[in-house]
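help with these tokens:
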Amino acid sequence: MIFCRLLGCLLLLGRSTAANNAEILALRHEVAVLRRQIESPRLSWADRAVLSALARQLPPVLRRHRLVTPGTLLNWHRRLVRWKWRQPPTGPGRPPLSEETAALIQRLARESPTWGYVRIQGELRRLGHRVAAATIRRVLRRSGLPPAPQRASQQTWRSFLRAQAHTLLACDFMHVETVFLKRLYVFFVMEIATRRVHVLGVTAHPTGAWVTQLARNLLMDLKGRAGRFRFLIRDRDSKFTTAFDAVFDGNGTAVIPTPPQSPRSNAFAERWIRTARAACTDRFLITGERHLSTVLTRYTEHYNSGRAHRSLDLRAPDDDPNIIPLPAATVRRTQILGGLLNEYHTTPPRPPHHPQEAPSSAAWSEY
């Protein structure tokens, strides 16, 4: 731009004085018109440099009517001084919280609904993070998580059942159609925590007295473990009489009837019925009560000891969670119910067999 302006000045030297004066008058008038329309024009750095250089060559009277005045030049100089000595901008207060720490705060609040801000602060300090309680409150509020009392009151049925699973029993009836189109009823009880199933009886005519006697047999079979169960979930079938409830009340187990026509309230028992039918009873032609009792007893043993469960981290109910099986070279199959189901077990390798060597002649001589 400077080169273009210098070239224009050289061209002006070849023009007459009258032409230059006429052009100057025309430019002044155009500038006056533009000033009436634009109050504060925006100038680039190049425009300011050219106007500053040319303003020094004008007489003092004409400098007063330029866009660049001495006061403007002084303001530009002050701005340059400020930019020279300014420091990089820094936000007020403490540095921002990292996303990993904020995610950890949200995780602690969701997994522990009874923890308040100070409790979460203490847990973070034990994990090596120093965060103020006000920061924790701000993070939870921004993520839509209420304070501890409200989070605890918003507990879902899934989390409630998971927390109370070790004290819950669930019972229900399962019906099976025989080959002679006769309906048989199966009464079973499930331990919710371990998913262990107890098939208590099979009959074609269930009654309240029959179910009550099966409840007594169950408590006798559980022996010392019967006292750990605090609640029993059952539906509103008429065969669950007052005497049936009294058996469990004597054991300290409260009976909780499900709402009418709400099978999802007893979802664990309903899910076992679906599993037993798909894997066992729907693939058999049941002839009678004895046949059905034998089949379900063998299937229940397989369900409790040889079937992996998703809710138990792919373990069987009778497996020890503290034992990690090691891979073995030999895997053996055990057929159940005539090959309808298979169980696979690892066999440890046998130690090498060393036949006894015949005694040497020296040994015979010593003998």
Notes: The mean pLDDT is 81. Residues 99-154 form one domain. The two ends are 121 Å apart (CA to CA). The chain is about 45% helix and 15% strand.
